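PT: before anyone asks, these are the final sequences, not the draft ones from last week. 460 residues across everything. Please model them as a single complex and drop the result in this thread when it's through.
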Amino acid sequence: MLTMRSTRSRGAEPEDLTTRARIRDAAVLRFGREGFGTSLRVIAADAGVSAGLVIHHFGTKEKLRQACDTHILEEIKHAKYENLVESTGGRFLEYFATAEQFAPIFAYVLRSLQHGGPLARSFVDHMVDDAVEYMADGVAAGVIVPSRDERARARYLVLSSLGSGLLSITLDPPEDPSDLAALMRRHFDAITLPALEMYTEGVLTTRRMLDEYLSYVGDPPAAREERTAG
Amino acid sequence: MLTMRSTRSRGAEPEDLTTRARIRDAAVLRFGREGFGTSLRVIAADAGVSAGLVIHHFGTKEKLRQACDTHILEEIKHAKYENLVESTGGRFLEYFATAEQFAPIFAYVLRSLQHGGPLARSFVDHMVDDAVEYMADGVAAGVIVPSRDERARARYLVLSSLGSGLLSITLDPPEDPSDLAALMRRHFDAITLPALEMYTEGVLTTRRMLDEYLSYVGDPPAAREERTAG
DNA sequence: CAGCATTCTATACACGCGTTCAGCGCTGGC
DNA sequence: GCCAGCGCTGAACGCGTGTATAGAATGCTG
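LR: through. Structure below.
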């Protein structure tokens, strides 16, 4: 069953992979490290082939990126199945970001989030789905307060977590790309206290703003603002 | 009246539109709209000049971007003094993001946050400073619960707000760059409810996680870990 | 073995980039 | 008058890019 050969991090020469897969992996690494502006020739050199062969296998740089995207998505799906769901609960992101084994995947995902694109959207959507599930479990177990709009809250939490992490790394990029996990760990260290405070104690001492908002949307003066395209 | 000998003095830039200023403004617009990959020729065309003149005035594309950065910083400072501090309180970001007049500045700042660089860091630092101030006022007024590490909380809030907004726009970029304000408004609409809920009611029903963390790291007032503020 | 398809390299092409440079028109000072 | 300086243009340079193509190596199939 588990005949998968997980792509090793750098070091061991993956001679057993097909050339196409080697190129793809090299592209994932470079794209993750340096962004999608990396030239085909650099990727080709990493994979030990010529630039033309990259085109021959993928047709276009854009298609190469698409191949990387779908491959990363599969890897994430696989990683989730493997050992995440059971143990990490809501801290998927933290584990995913700091576990060494996922470093290349995580770097690539970060770059995608930074640049936008289908993979980024898909990744966020999946995380929102998962968050909805985790939060529902928490609510059912009585450890998480229910929300008036569970999905909106889940999305808000995911966007905030991912966004703050992404921003943190963008503002203070690692010299050595292998330090990415360390950087994320530092970020989590920095935000854990305020996040926990906020999760358990809130920020506001009065319900005034929330109640005002609720009564405001309760009687929505919808004429004032048009809502287009839902 | 002709222009006198062009003063190269920094700091006090003339308000009339010299060609140099026109180029700079065109660059700000294009950089904000399309990112810093925009070619010099496009910017030059926008400003109605040749590409060589851009180099003649700024020496280098990188220096042009630096000129844009400092100009934007000045504009922000100016805007803050003008009419923000008095009225908007903690909702500076929301006002700044949705006010039409600041659209180009905001777009440029977003691009900077996306790409990193000194302007982005400076902007975030300033926002953290402001947030510390606002939160302190709120705590003094009794409407905001105090934190065990006010600066860490302020930074966390700023990173989350900016990061979620940036991510939201990156995932769903506007076709028409002038719709950026509308997009941000939609984002704020989407997060207002969960944010208010969280600010007033928290997320966790039990203090367990917070207390465990506190007993684990001990007392975390700022003295324990000195952060290089530079 | 021959024939063929596939993998792969080397070279080349067309293009866009940032930047340089010679030179233009103009203005002000001597 | 002439010269110097400035703002400015248009062409060009060198380089790196993604991609196309011809052909060599390789291996499979008859």
